[in-house]
Design brief:
The chain is largely without helices or strands. It has two helices and no strands.
């Protein structure tokens, strides 16, 4: 069963959803997307919260992982 709904954006609000179940298996009903901007600007921020340790990819980078974002 899939729920289909929209969330009206309001300045200062945040939307949190989980894409895994409590036992850390994938929740395939968490499929989501976004709508195109028709007027104005779209700002977003993403915060990934991992069920397991996720430090390894950053340790493999030779430079600051944020440097690509800062030097755009």
């Amino acid at each position: 069963m899939y729920l289909i709904f929209t969330v009206k954006p309001m300045k200062g609000d945040a939307l949190l959803f989980f894409n895994i179940h409590l036992n850390a298996t994938a929740d395939t009903t968490s499929l989501h997307g976004s709508c195109p901007v028709i007027e104005g600007e779209k700002w977003l921020g993403t915060k990934w919260i991992h069920a397991n340790n996720y430090d390894m990819p950053y340790k493999k980078l030779r430079r600051n992982p944020m440097s690509k974002l800062v030097n755009v």
